[in-house]
Amino acid sequence: MTETGVTVPGGPEGSPGGGPWWWPRRRSLVLDASLAVISAVECTAEGASFAHNSGMVPELGAVLGMLVGASLLLRRRWPTAVVLIALAVTPAQTGFVLGVVSLYTLAASDVPRRIIAALASMTVAGTLIVAFVSMHKSIVRSGYHTPQWLLLAIAVLMAVGLTVPPVLLGLYVGARRRLVESLRERADGLERELSLLAEKAGERAERARMEERTRIAREMHDVVAHRVSLMVVHASALRSVVLSDPQRAQGAAELLGDMGRQALNELRQMLGVLRTAPSSRIDGQIPPASAPPEPNDADNDARGAERTADGAADDDGEVGPCLAELGVLVEQSRAAGMAVSLSEEGDRRPLDPPVEQTAYRVVQEALTNAHKHAVGAKTLVRVAYRTQEIAVLVENGPPAAEPSAGLPSGGNGLVGMKERVSALGGGFVAGVTRTGGFRVSAVIPARD
C-alpha cells in the first residue's frame, strides 16, 4: 500500500512481479517511460511558448515544462500528486497528455472515490475557466462579437471531454482489475480446498482399506479358529483312544471329518463373498466361488449339518450364523469333552442378522478360548433376551489340567469380539474371575 492508498501489484525488483521499484512488470516501466517522454516533449514546447508570451525566459519555461511532463513517470506511485501537478499547470495551458493520463491512473487506482470525485471536479472547473478565458481573449483580440453563452457551452464541452472519458475509463479498468483479483483469490481458495478434500479423501480411502482388512481378518479368525480348535482337540483324543477303544476312535474320526468339512464350507463361502462383484450383490444373491462336486449319498447328512452350522442369510445376502444354532455349537463343545451348559432367559425372538451373528461369534470365540486355556473346566453360556438389548455371558471355571492340545493363540480373539460389539453400539467386558476362571460378557442393542 502506497502513501496515496494505491495497491502496487508488483514490488521491489526480485519480487514475483519481476518489475523494478513500484512497477509490476518491466513492460509497465517501458510504457510509463514512453508516456513520460511524450509528456515532457509536449510540456517543454508549451512551457517555452508560455514563458515567451508572458515575457519570461523561454529556456526557464522549457526546463520547468520538461520537469512537469516527466512527473508522469510517478503516476503509479503517487497518482494524486501527479493530478495535482497537472492542475497546477492548467492556467499555463500546458500538460494535455499529463492531465488525461494522470486522471485515468487516479480513477483506476485504489484511491477513495471521494478523492477521485474531488480532483476530477477541480480539473473540470480549472479546464472550464482556462478554456473560457482563453477563447474570450482570442475573440476580443480578433474583434469578433460572439455570445457569452456560446463560449461557455464550448468551454463546458471541452472541460467535460478532456476530463470525464479518462475518469470513466479508469473506473472501469480499476473495477475490472479488482474483479479479476477477487476471482483469482477465490480460485486459489477453491484450489486449496480441493487439495485438502483430496487429501482427506485419500485418508478416508486408506482408513476404509485398513478397516476392511481388519474386518476380513476378524471374519476369517471367527470362521476358522473355533472349528480348527475343536479338530485339534478331537485329534488329540483320537490319538489317545485309537488302540484302547476303537469304537470311540471311529466316532471321533467321523466327527473330526464333519468338522473339517464344515470349516472348508465356511471358508468357501467366505471366499465366495470376497470374490463377488458389486453388481452381482444388488439383489442379495451370492454366486458360489466354484462349482462344488456332486455330493454322494454319504455326504447328505454332513451337508445338512453344515447348513445348520452355517446359519441363515442376512439382509445383504451374506451367510452367517444365528442364535438358533447355539445349541449345535454347545453340543460340539460337549463332544470335544467340555462340560458346558446353555441357559436362555426371556422370550426368544428373531433379531437383526448383524445382532445375532455378533452374539453367536462372541459365544463361539469364548468357547474356543475355553478349549485352549481352560481344559476340563466347567463352562456356562447364558443368553438373556431383554426388551431393548440382548445379553451374552460365557464364564468358565479354573482349568482342571494343563493345556495339552498345543493350540496356538494370536491374542486377537478378545479384540475382535470387542470390535464387533462396539460396532453395534454395545458394551463388552472380559476378564479373570475371583475363582481363577474367565468371564466374557457382552450387551448388544436389540434390533428386531
Automatic annotation (TrEMBL):
GO molecular function, one term: kinase activity
Low complexity bias spans: 1-10
Swiss-Prot/TrEMBL catalytic activity: ATP + protein L-histidine = ADP + protein N-phospho-L-histidine
Ranges of biased composition (kind: Gly residues): 11-20
Keyword terms: ATP-binding, Kinase, Membrane, Nucleotide-binding, Phosphoprotein, Transferase, Transmembrane, Transmembrane helix, Two-component regulatory system
This enzyme's EC code(s): 2.7.13.3
Region (Disordered): 1-20, 279-318
Superkingdom assignment: Bacteria
Keyword ATP-binding in annotation: yes
Transmembrane residue ranges: 56-74, 81-103, 115-137, 149-173
Domain Signal transduction histidine kinase subgroup 3 dimerisation and phosphoacceptor: 212-277
Residue ranges, compositional bias (Basic and acidic residues): 300-309
The name this protein goes by in its record: histidine kinase
Species of the source: Streptomyces humicola
Top-level taxonomy: Bacteria, Bacillati, Actinomycetota, Actinomycetes, Kitasatosporales
